[in-house]
# Entry
Amino acid sequence: MAYYVYILASRRDGAIYVGVTNDLVRRVYEHRIKAVPGFTKKYNITQLVWFETYDDPISAISREKELKKWKRVWKTQLIEKDNPNLNDLYESICK
# Structure
């Protein structure tokens, strides 16, 4: 089973969210339809802009915790390294 660490954004220079899941398509869909009350619903954070895949949950959770401690500028640089236009990657993972 794969595990994912992901970053969602509301827009360029908007709010961002770091999360972890074992079903990226389902979890991002839940954020998009605002199925769960919380930070992403409150700030309309729905665009998948970055993710990494891991083979085990311990590694994924450790990475998520590491990224949550990062400064915003570091997270932005991480995103822009692979996704300079901050395109929404959701459609690309639904195939």
Notes: DSSP finds five helices and three strands in the chain. The chain has a mean pLDDT of 96.
